[in-house]
Structure formats: structure tokens, C-alpha cells
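Input record, target 12 of the design panel.
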């Protein structure tokens, strides 16, 4: 996951002159969560909606749960990212203080302007996917107020995982002809 993700818009600006949709995925063989991929599906945005809410509300448990649910192993903070939409600076210090509250995150690399945190794997990580007990899908994910912002399940059982919640929505199944 690349941070800061300070805006809904997926265009990135750096203090060393770069501007564009990003470049990290060209050099990393692992999948990466970036705002640049949001426009291709409404459901792509869900991860960042939940992450932004957890960070803004400083809900460490919700953020840690989100990282586990999406199997996020690394967080990359790029301090060269600048905010061109506002005169306000991006507060990476706030991110660092927030990450200190999460015991499963450790700082694994630092070379200005980049800092990498690694999520220590949980020993109870599920090894199978299960059908969700209850899934709610709103019509307009972006404008929903928390806690309805997220797809919800009615259990805290760590073996219940919904990796692609959009696949379970009635709307998507009807569109694909899987449900009449």
C-alpha cells in the first residue's frame, strides 16, 4: 500500500518534479494498492475508503483488520508526495504516530524520502475462503457515511474472509447473468 493517499484523485505529484498516475508498479513484482487503479471499478475504491476512514479516525484496530483482510504486507510512505490541491502540507508525522499504535507494524526500511513498514504476519491467518454470512452493498460507496462505508460481515471469526466483496453483490451477479 502506498501512502500518503491524501486525495480521491489518482494523479501524483512529487517535490522532485514528477507528476503522473504513478510508476511504482513498474519496479515491483508484487501487486500494489494505488489510487491510480481506482477508476477501473467502483469496488476498487473500497480499500482506500476504509483505510482513509481508519486513519482519519485513528482507529488502529480497524486499520489492522483492513490490512489483514486485504493481505497487505508492506506500507510505503513517500514523503516526497506533495498536495497540489491545497496549501496544507501532508502530515506524514501523523501517519507515523498512528502506525506506532499498531503492534503488528514494524519499520523495516528508511531512506529519505521513503519509509517502509512491514506487517508482521498473524499466526491465525485463514487458509480458506468462506461464503460471507451477511454482505451489504450500497449503491454509492463514495458518499456513504461510516460505518456503512464498508462491506460488513456479522462475525469476528478470522477464518471468514471476503477478498473481492463486489463478487457477492446482487447487482454484479444480475449484470453477469448469474442471478435472475
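The sequence produced for target 12 reads:
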Amino acid at each position: 500500500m502506498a501512502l500518503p493517499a491524501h486525495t480521491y484523485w489518482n494523479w501524483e505529484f512529487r517535490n522532485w518534479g514528477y507528476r503522473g498516475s504513478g510508476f511504482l508498479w513498474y519496479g515491483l513484482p508484487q501487486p500494489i494498492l494505488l489510487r491510480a487503479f481506482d477508476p477501473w471499478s467502483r469496488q476498487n475504491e473500497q480499500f482506500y475508503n476504509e483505510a482513509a476512514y481508519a486513519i482519519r479516525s485513528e482507529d488502529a484496530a480497524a486499520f489492522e483488520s483492513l490490512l489483514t483482510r486485504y493481505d497487505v504486507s508492506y506500507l510505503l510512505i513517500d514523503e516526497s508526495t506533495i498536495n497540489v490541491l491545497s496549501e496544507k502540507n501532508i502530515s506524514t508525522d501523523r501517519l507515523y504516530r498512528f502506525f506506532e499504535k499498531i503492534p503488528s507494524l514494524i519499520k523495516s526500511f528508511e531512506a529519505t524520502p521513503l519509509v517502509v513498514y512491514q506487517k508482521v504476519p498473524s499466526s491465525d491467518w485463514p487458509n480458506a475462503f468462506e461464503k460471507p454470512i451477511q454482505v451489504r452493498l450500497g449503491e454509492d460507496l463514495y458518499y456513504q457515511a461510516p460505518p456503512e462505508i464498508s462491506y460488513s460481515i456479522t462475525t469476528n471469526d478470522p477464518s471468514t474472509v471476503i477478498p473481492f466483496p463486489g463478487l457477492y453483490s446482487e447487482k454484479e451477479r444480475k449484470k453477469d447473468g448469474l442471478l435472475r
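The helical segments are 24-27, 46-56, 60-69, 92-100, 170-175.
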